[in-house]
Amino acid sequence: MKNTKVLIVDDSAVVRSVLKELLSLDKNIDVIGEAVDPFDARDKIKLLKPDVITLDIEMPKMDGLTFLGNLMRLNPMPVIMLSTLTHAGADATLQALEAGAVDFIAKPAVSAGDENLKRFQRDLVDKVKAAATAAKKLKFRRSAPKSALIVKSKLSSKNINVGPNSIIAIGASTGGTEAISDLLRDLPENLPPIVITQHIPANFSDRFAKRLNKQTGMTVAEARDGDVLQSNHVYISPGSHHLVIKKHGHKMVCRLDDGGWVNRHKPSVEVMFDSILEVEPSKATVIMLTGMGEDGAKSMKELAQAGAHTIAQNEESSLVWGMPGAAVKIGAVNEVIALNKIAASLLQHLSR
Description:
Layout: E1 4-9, H1 13-24, E2 29-35, H2 38-48, E3 52-56, H3 64-74, E4 79-83, H4 87-99, E5 103-106, H5 114-133, E6 167-172, H6 176-186, E7 194-198, H7 202-213, E8 219-222, E9 233-236, E10 242-248, E11 251-257, H8 269-277, E12 284-288, H9 297-305, E13 309-313, H10 323-329, E14 335-337, H11 339-350
Parallel strand pairs: 1-2, 1-3, 3-4, 4-5, 6-7, 6-12, 7-9, 8-9, 12-13, 13-14
Antiparallel strand pairs: 10-11
């Protein structure tokens, strides 16, 4: 396989140097150039033809979001955004994902220790490699900006027949923020409670939940410890904790687990799926969306064996077919379907 060619776009010489050094530690990645602003980047893209671009959001002459929009319109290619761990940085990053960026990575703190820097390097390399595999998928993504108004689903939930302790659980990673948004917008109101683990940094999950809340008729919020699960509500795992579902009397509640990283992730899909095994798995519908890695695949198989209905996004509609592909490979999935067909399939299952 040929090496992945990367162009670094950042106005900071220090950041460019650090990114180049960290990426160059991997023998399958070649940093073929650096650009100091979007105009410099435009010229070097034409000259060097990179496979992947890392792009800072805040730059002189033209901000990263504007440049990204132009790039996706004229010459779509895999872009990884470099984001700051601030509310403004989170909002801009979510806008970038809507505009077509494949993924993002939060800049490490200046005081980041060796272990944090190692984790950043691993994540950066993984994201660059995953982005390179997504190049052919970019033109098939829904790239239109999400409406500020709630769009009522064309589907109806009036025929569904679910009892107490029914639950819908969703896991996702790379490409997941947009896949989750699209799926929730396709779903009607008055469904069983939906719990979601998306691999996302701590400062981003609340902003992500608030954006989703504006796009759907359901109530979407970052999960809090002790939240009682309710129908027509969506609970997003905080980026700082694993989301665990527990039985409390006749109700189900959210618990936040501050334990260690699982499968190199916190929050981890596996942790959430494992917790549903301890509740009533036969009343669960479990969905694995786009994402790199294998987090949650093994526990998804255990859920399927315990009676849960399991759905995986298909390869054609997944930006990165890592997590759903891993689940399919080990026989954990009842249905493998395109993202835009999942809502209808889910309702059909719940209506049986």
